[in-house]
Design a protein that fits this description.
Length: 331
């Protein structure tokens, strides 16, 4: 594990809460802490998957969870040899107080808890953010260096511990850019001009490559993003391109969309309606849509999968529609 990852891991908060609205509110409050990364889970099993990837500096956890209790989660973390300082926040503390009372490294708070109180507890466990030095390279510097050396790099853009987006360069070619507002050249434009950010540069994993949303070399993409930024700034008033929300990176490992990528310079026409088959069942529509996707007929694939979504659904259907929209088909 690199020192950068190790240092970042010490400032990670794992938030385990099954109430979606409450979890979202708590995340927004904790993300205001500078230099703190917040990872969330809604169940014991989701929390265990997070801890398999990163060692949190502190865990804020509900006790009553859909697939077990927070106490069971601690027991399983012990079995993994992962000791995480834990703050239990629950409306049912009296029921579990006897089991928790003797355990070291555990704090108990009864709901509701003010966000200011949670933030202060997190800072007590993680420490205050270190003073930040100016970044050695900007996002544009990294992209230019990768383009000059025909290198493959994954660039992650952060502000105050919040990941704003990512840019992928493959063998010197601009491949993918994404932020919370979208993908492609507009995302690259926003990330290039986001203020007060830091950029981490790593080697991209070979088994987790997103669909291509940029074209040309890294230098070509930078010029196009700069041109688009100038055009937008000439508008009165200019669009709001500020980045304040985290994003979920796209990956292909859980979809069928692994070889169906456009090549450099390839344009994607608007979707055309397939031949009318009013009574065609979901399975047939979905199968035809996948066949069209693998044949690189993206417009027909989008039309077929969209029709399938009106009569049924499945996780892979929704994932492939999302990937097609990311490539500009049907958007």
């Amino acid at each position: 594990m690199s020192s950068e990852v190790s240092d970042r891991a010490q400032r990670v908060v794992l938030l385990v809460e099954d109430e979606v609205v409450l979890r979202s509110s708590m995340m927004r409050g904790l993300l205001k802490l500078p230099g703190v990364v917040v990872l969330d889970a809604g169940s014991v099993s989701e929390a265990l998957r997070v801890v398999e990837r990163v060692q949190p500096g502190v865990m804020i956890c509900d006790i009553d969870l859909p697939d077990g209790s927070g106490i069971e989660l601690l027991t399983q973390l012990d079995a993994m040899n992962r000791r995480v300082p834990t703050v239990f926040v629950s409306a049912y503390l009296p029921r579990f107080r006897q089991e928790i009372a003797q355990r070291p490294g555990v704090m108990m708070l009864e709901k509701p808890v003010a966000l200011s109180r949670l933030r202060e507890i997190v800072l007590q466990h993680l420490g205050r953010a270190p003073s930040q030095q100016p970044p050695p390279f900007l996002l544009t510097d990294y992209i230019q260096l990768a383009a000059m050396g025909n290198r493959s790099v994954l660039l992650e853009v952060h502000r105050d511990g919040l990941r704003l987006g990512e840019v992928l360069v493959r063998a010197g070619q601009a491949w993918h850019a994404q932020d919370a507002k979208g993908v492609g050249i507009d995302a690259l434009m926003r990330l290039m001009h986001a203020p007060d950010v830091t950029v981490s540069c790593t080697t991209p994993p070979d088994d987790s490559i997103p669909p291509r949303t940029l074209s040309g070399s890294g230098e070509h993409a930078l010029l196009e993003a700069a041109r688009r930024y100038d055009e937008r700034q000439s508008l009165t008033p200019p669009p709001d391109d500020s980045l304040t929300e985290p994003f979920e990176p796209m990956r292909l490992s859980d979809t069928l969309f692994d070889e169906a990528m456009p090549s450099d310079g390839e344009t994607i026409p608007a979707p055309e309606a397939p031949s009318p088959d009013a009574d065609e069942p979901f399975e047939a529509l979905y199968e035809r849509g996948v066949e069209a996707m693998l044949a690189r007929d993206y417009p027909r694939a989008f039309a077929l999968l969209s029709r399938a979504s009106r009569v049924g659904t499945s996780p892979s259907l929704e994932a492939n529609l999302k990937r097609l929209r990311a490539l500009g088909v049907g958007s």
